[in-house]
Amino acid sequence: MKVCVFCGSSMGNDPRYKEAAERLGEVLAQHDCSLYYGGASVGLMKIIADKMLENGKEVVGIIPKLICDMEIAHEGVTKMIETESMSERKLMLIEESDAFIAMSGGFGTLDEIFEVVVLNQLRITDKPIALYNTLNYYDKLIEFIDHAVSQGFIRKEHRDNLIVSDDPEILFKELSKHKSIGIDQWIKDIKEESHEL
Q: CA of 72: how far to CAs of 15, 42, 97, 128, in Å?
């Protein structure tokens, strides 16, 4: 399986984030996965890439020229692909990967998470995405999503399609058995509610 990991270019304030990144790398390596990621040699991105390389696994970095010019591209990866823009990088990561895991990260990671979620919702892609909820990092985000479900702006089945765990083995297992959600009922429902006004 080609697994794309979205994650921060920072280490975070707690050493357990680094330990969690190493653990995820070990689990993916044990399951003979290839890693696709943002290509940098900083933050949690570097930690998981190094752990996969240490275990002899393929690591493909996809990095925009702008970031590459900042001299933070990882020089030890199996393959490095340079893109013209952040958008092109994201598109290529999504096209090339079979599944996605989001570790702790900032705005870039959130952007990547929701890009995949929306593409799945519209059935443009059927690739699963999981949140690696280290130290309950994503609890507030999940709380907001649940609030949006309760207010009728996110459907429960789309929320339930988002895999969440702090255990990498559970994440891999759930990603492996993922089944896509049909779009027909969702479209029918939103058409009906819009014409009831």
A: 21, 7, 23, 29
